[in-house]
Amino acid sequence: MEEIITSISNNVLDMYYNTYGNDTNIDIIKLAKMFGFKVYEDKNMSYLVLATLEVTKNKKRIAINSNYTPEAKKYYTALELSYYLINKKDNAPFSDILCEYSLDSMTSKLANEILMPYDSFIKLYNEIRLEYKFHSKVVEALSKIYNLPESIIDKRVQEILIIKNKVKKRTK
């Protein structure tokens, strides 16, 4: 699973960097457009739905619930694009409805790796950690740099520390 995520994210980021340059803050809308998606906000979405994805013969759309912060919308767009990148089958039509309870770990890991690539994230994390004593301040600073919700940054830090320390996640 990790190899698949690494391969997809490397290809996607190479494509993005070759077009837009190597930037810490990935413009997920530009990236989605590179794959032919129209991304827009939907004001009529149920509060339970974070985003939707639709791929048909003639169109590719990602609709984001307009009731969330810009940082959350960025992450939800990345999740839907990641879902597409993992699950696309030639030009076969498919759709997805993203809800809090429907997140899968592979999609989340790919979205995290696209928005916060491992090497650059750990470098920034280590630099900021030298500046701030408290974990919450490090997370807050990274949230501002990546334009993502603090909860997502915190999860990425935990994920990175587990990978870095080769510690297995404890299960209940």
Keywords:
7 helices, four-stranded mixed beta sheet, globular, 172 residues, alpha+beta, 56% helix
Report on this model:
The chain has 172 residues and is of the alpha+beta class. It is built from seven helices and four strands. The protein has helices at 2-20, 28-34, 70-87, 105-115, 118-131, 135-146, 150-165, and strands at 38-42, 49-55, 60-65, 94-99. Strands 1-3-2-4 form a four-stranded mixed sheet. The radius of gyration is 16 Å and the shape is globular. The relative contact order is 0.13.
- Structural class call reads alpha+beta
Taken as a percent bin, the fraction of beta residues is 5-15%
Mean pLDDT: 89
Strand order of the largest sheet: 1-3-2-4
Gyration radius, rounded? 16 Å
Total number of beta strands = 4
What is the general shape?
A: globular
Compact description:
The chain is an alpha+beta fold. The chain is built from seven helices and four strands. It is globular, with a radius of gyration of 16 Å.
Secondary structure: elements and pairs:
Blueprint: H1 2-20, H2 28-34, E1 38-42, E2 49-55, E3 60-65, H3 70-87, E4 94-99, H4 105-115, H5 118-131, H6 135-146, H7 150-165
Helix pairs in contact: 1-4, 3-4, 5-6, 6-7
